[in-house]
Amino acid sequence: MTAGYEEEVLCRLGVLPLVYFALHGRAPRWAAIASSVIATGLVFAAWHALGEPEPSTTFFLTRLLIPGCVMSVVWLASPSAIVAAHCTAHFLIPALFTS
After folding, report:
1. N- to C-terminal Cα separation, the chain
2. pLDDT tens, position by position, 30-80
3. Which residues contact 64 (CB under 8 A, 6 or more apart)?
4. Alpha helix (H) ranges present in the chain?
């Protein structure tokens, strides 16, 4: 469960606001939001790719889009729901996809 918390703190509470505030006032608001969401997705996907013995473009893009970008957008509306969903995924994914 700590992995979910660590990733949320680093990505959603670290990268997301850091990029947004770096661009706020220098770019249109929509561009600052989009850039921060994409940067967060890239960090999230790259962090997970570091631990893979055989990196996969499909897994990287999936992590970039779904937990990286989509969860970042939803986080803006409900941070606690995303943290709970992320931590739950860390329990369910290994249980469902390993034999």
Report:
1. 20
2. 999 999 999 998 998 888 888 778 878 887 888 888 778 888 888 777 878
3. 41, 42, 44, 45
4. 2-7, 16-23, 29-50, 57-63, 71-75, 79-97
In this prediction, residues 92-99 reach a mean pLDDT of 70
pTM, rounded to two decimals: 0.74
Domain that holds residue 31: 2-97
CA-nearest of 51, 31, 40 to 9 is 40
| Count: domains in the chain | 1
Which residue in the block uniquely carries the two structure tokens 């390993």?
98
Instruction: Report the C-alpha gap between 47 and 89 in whole angstroms.
Output: 16
Q: Which residue do the tokens 């561009």 mark?
A: 31
